[in-house]
Amino acid sequence: MKTVDEHISDILGAVAVLPARRLPLPTVHGCVLAANVRATIALPGFDNSAMDGYAVRAADVATASEDAPVRLPVAGEIAAGAALPPEVAPGTAVRIMTGAPFPPGADTVVQVEWTDGGTETVAVHRPAERGLHIRRKGEEVAIGDLVLTAGTMLGAAQIGLLAAVNVANPPVHPRPRLAVLSTGSELVDVGGRVGPGQIVDSNSHAVVAAAREAGAEARRLTGVPDDPERFEEALRSVLPEVDAIVTTGGVSVGAHDIVKEVLTATGEVRFERIAMQPGKPQGFGVIDGVPVFTLPGNPVSALVSFELFVRPALRRMRGLTGSGRPRVTVTVAEALRSPAGKRSFPRVRVTRGEDGGLLAYSAGGQGSHHLAAAAGANALLVVPEDVTEVEAGKPATAILLAADPTDGDLAAAVL
Ligand SMILES: Nc1nc2c(c(=O)[nH]1)N[C@H]1C(S)=C(S)[C@@H](COP(=O)(O)OP(=O)(O)OC[C@H]3O[C@@H](n4cnc5c(N)ncnc54)[C@H](O)[C@@H]3O)O[C@H]1N2
Ligand code: MOO
Predict the structure, then answer these.
(1) What CATH number is associated with residue 31?
(2) Domain that holds residue 102
(3) Which pLDDT does position 322 carry in this prediction?
(4) Is the CB of 170 inside a 6 Å radius of any atom of ligand 2?
């Protein structure tokens, strides 16, 4: 059998980063920047006030105190958005609002709390040193400065910064578009009537959700019949519209395993047995440039193999590396068994124990069909191929499913 690592490296070797595109700023949250961005405007763009108050000359208020306030005539007002602030003559004050352009002539801001708030004349109770509360043009970002580097993941602050420097269409690696096909004549669409021998198609919904968590744009391809020709037709017709395809079911050795039947016949997808539990039967290939993953139909097998094989591939397409999941060392709280010669991924709940260490409890049944247990898990334990029994109290590696910190320091800090 092929190892998990060999399969991952074959997949990553066949999957490429999606080419950079300029996309509208409102659509790029969670995308990776594909090129360096330099500022074409400064931040701040002009000298402005950091406080609501009065623009004055520091020398005019140097003697101000509670007992002997300095009174100055208020010569005008500057609101945020004012284009040409008036010059402040010696011995006068101009009311100024936060973000309003700082006027020539003045050299400091007295915040309104240090005054009586007057509009004709103002009584200033405290002196203000020169330069106080003035945000200088280009103080943080000068024109031509590198503001974000290629490879940066665009989160809220980065999106804000791109907007601030007026980049409407940043160059990014787009989100991969994924189509998900579930096959099986026993499947009923969610909300439908479940007849004898039938089950609700849960895989396509779970895989779409997992794909979105991995940063892809995913959609279900519904109405794919369990007929080899029509399955192939559906698959080929969606190829030009997507960057990847995931199917679930139909890859083992059953008489109606059409995914395997069709794609083996074309020779474009390789079906292999991977030394893992769950998720042994896997298929992967590239059809017309589109990576196609055929995952096993058992619901937990589909999710675990998505996590291990599809998620890193989607991240690579997005310009990221790795799985984006923290791997931590935990103490196994309950003894567990694992099949010889296979890497197993028991579904567990990781919690912090009283001594501050991390403990992993089984999330429930460990069968490939035990979806309720998977739904209660927040981590996958990783039990190596040569281990058949893990005793309680022993250390093990766990892949945390709940958090997706992209920053290694953050990953270490969240737990
Ligand atoms: N004789 C053998 N039988 C099986 C083997 C084997 O080596 N020899 N491997 C087993 C393993 S391991 C797995 S995993 C499964 C993989 O089966 P398939 O990928 O062919 O999937 P199906 O047979 O279509 O379904 C398996 C199971 O999952 C349920 N299922 C399928 N699709 C969905 C869906 N969209 N939503 C929810 N549940 C789904 C299906 O009803 C079956 O119960 O094969 C084993 N058999
Ligand atoms: O390899 Mo299967 O995924 O165990 O149920």
Answers:
(1) 3.90.105.10
(2) 48-135
(3) 94
(4) no
Residues 298 and 346 in one domain: no
- Residue 403's pLDDT band (boundaries 50, 70, 90)? low
What is the pTM for the complete model shown? Answer: 0.92
Q: What is the CATH number of the domain that holds 309?
A: 3.40.980.10
Cα–Cα distances (Å) from 217 to 48, 213, 244, in that order, read 42, 10, 10
- The number of the ligand 2 atom at minimal distance from the alpha carbon of 281 is 1
Confidence of residue 305 (pLDDT cuts 50, 70, 90): very high
Closest by Cα among 31, 43, 321 to 169: 31
Q: Do 10 and 123 belong together in one domain?
A: no
Nearest to 213 by CA among 103, 376, 294, 325: 325
* Residue 257 Cα distances to 188, 232, 271, 300, angstroms: 17, 13, 12, 18
User: Given a cut of 90, is residue 160 above it in pLDDT?
Assistant: yes
List beta partners, residue 343. Answer: 276
Whether residue 55 is found in the same domain as residue 110: yes
Task: Identify whether residues 354 and 227 lie together within a single domain.
Answer: no
Query: Are 302 and 334 within one domain?
Result: no
Decide if pLDDT at 287 tops 60. yes
Instruction: Please give the C-alpha separations between residue 205 and each of 105, 193, 227, 312, in angstroms, as whole numbers.
Output: 65, 17, 21, 19
390 falls within a domain:
yes
In a domain, 334, yes or no: yes
**How far apart are the C-alpha atoms of 376 and 243, rounded to whole Å?**
31
Neighbours of 237 (CB within 10 A): 10
* C-beta of residue 37 within 8 angstroms of C-beta of residue 146: yes
Q: Is the CB of 283 under 6 A from ligand 1?
A: no
Burial of 303 (0-12, 13-18, 19+ CB in 10 A): buried
> Are 207 and 275 contained in the same domain?
yes
Positive/negative CA dihedral, 366, 371, 376, 377: positive
Distance 310 CA to ligand 1 centre (A): 18
Return the residue matching tokens 């395993």: 257
Q: What pLDDT does residue 410 have? A: 56
Q: Which of 246, 277, 298, 303 most suits a substitution to test ligand 1, by most atoms within 8 Å of the C-beta?
A: 298
Q: Are residues 365 and 299 in the same domain?
A: no
